[in-house]
Request: fold
Amino acid sequence: MTITRRDLLIGTAAIVTTASTGARAQPIQDVVIGVIYPFSGSSAQIGVDAKHAFNTAADIINNVYDLDLPLARSAGLPGLGGAKVRLVFADHQADPQKGRAEAERLITQEKVSAIIGTYQSAVAVTVSDTTERYQIPFLSADNSSPSLHRRGLKFYFRAGAHDEMFSAAMFDFFDALKKKGERIETLALFHEDTIFGTDSSNAQLKLAGERGYKVVANIKYRANSPSLTAEVQQLKAANADVLMPSSYTTDGILLVKTMGELGYKPKAMVAQDAGFAEKTLYDAVGDKLQGVISRGSFSLDLAAKRPMVGKVNDLFKVKSGKDFNDYSSRQFMGLIVLADAINRAKSTDGEKIRAALAATDMPGEQTIMPWKRVKFDENGQNNYADPVLLQWVGSKFVTIFPVQAAVAEAVWPMNKG
Amino acid sequence: MLSAETIVQSLASGLLMGLLYGLIAVGLALIFGLMDVVNFAHGEFLMTAMYATFGLAVLVGLDPLLSAPLVAAALFVFGALVYLGIVRFAMRAKKNIGMVQIFTTFGLAILMQGLAQFLFTPDYRSIANSWLGGKTLSVGDIFLPVPQLAGAVVSIATFGLLYFVINRTDFGRALEATREDAGAVALVGIDRNRVFAIGWGLGAALVGLAGAIMATFFYIYPDVGSSFALIAYVTVALGGFGSVFGAFAGGIIIGLVEAITAMILPPSLKSVGIYSVYLAVVFLRPRGLFGSI
Reply:
């Protein structure tokens, strides 16, 4: 038999049809999400904890749990026929350039549908530039620099608060204390030199100016310095009513140790989270930090009102050996918000997920956070993410502000001068 | 704004820190002076010593001050083994010997960091209670942290001892002879490998001593060595490659320059002072202040 052109065409068509029907019969594809964190280098511990938080969230999404969280009661994503979420972890080593390269690799090699990250705001800048270029959504789980959502990016989303919101809460708290007759006039800012510290101190400077507080020292230092003696001397000389550090864990530990060595006891300390939310810092120098206040997004005190929070925390604790903190809670919630959008998008296409994220409206009760709701503005920022202030008392954090979330009165000042 | 008290306090802190920088750097200078090999794993040696001190404090309850000699001895053995097991073979390379040595010690650094992260997790550790930790001596309005003060005393004593060993003992003369002509010493019955192994051991033991002291006031994690190692390289280059006493002087200069810069400029720029001095030395006296090459 001679093969004619027509036979060949029909044959090819038949093969193509079989192939495509075959594909349809195949099991549902996993939804791949890229997770970019520091897994080595000076903030590797953050990555290790983050991995547990994301795995806890993926576990709740992929399996059936009786929790009042989106996607908990179903196995996988119902909108995609029960597809499972698969996480691919990448290490950015706190280096913005490595972050860019890893984001590119996740998108082109691992074919991820979305990326979540990054802890350091400086890395979030390069990662979100890359996702924007490839039209893939980036969920900024725990970055707090306000400038991140002001770059006109279409694919950038942040469910948590940024440092202007956090700092505003601090100044609301100062105002409330002043009304009660406490003397708070001078502030000392102490911040590291990347985008996190700089943005944080800029926000605090602006608020101090607006609300009539005098900034008597504004000290910028190099992150991971071998010594902070000179810096602490200047803080001591300024002896402000409130010391406001914006530091990652390593510098936070060294700051507190150096303050002890140079005999400086600040009257009060209100920290911009970061290192001051980490258990390791309190393990190292917690005895010197009785009464320190840190802003936060999360409080385990919420479990009393919303038992689901305690249950989710238990799931996380089994994996990590730690309670949720400000970072791990936002990382956990970030993946839930992202998966919820992919589920509603019923697609792994970047543009469709973006549209679904933009349409997100999740009531606060369905989160583990003290937020009113999750709803993004045109810049991808959730303005309903109410921050809280926490005070380190004994060996745990107690919510002290705002009043509706507080479980105790603040101890003020921290050290009587 | 600059009171006399602030200036004295800054200079005192700078001097203490500088003596410690010197102690951290001297092992690097010693090894380089002996055999022209830059140990890029120097920071990781420091990290290992800090973890060893931490381990002894937590598991056996040994105070860092008591464990310092033990840690130094352990690091001596470790350093000698690194030479005998790794560096000795790297030095046999026929081509590109400099590159081979760099990659060997650099690879060792990455391996040690990775191992530390695997074994000890990347969590930040610190020794909560020690005889020295957290204590401060105040003279008038000047505060001198006891751990750094102890570091300074150990540093001065160590340099004194080193001076004696190098100038007054047979081993010191063998060290010097091997440094000058490693081939010729074989003719007079000095075993080159033995001297090199002891040199590496000594270099590691010195940084081990520094690590034990530092563990009382600094946090410990797998990457802790990198920022100190960078300063150690500058110290060695400033003092003169291979000069043990150059490291001493270089350390003090760096500590003081750092403190003075932080007084004049914003503290975030304090390393600018260090590197400016370093650049000036490299331009005007490329072999370093006390270098002999």
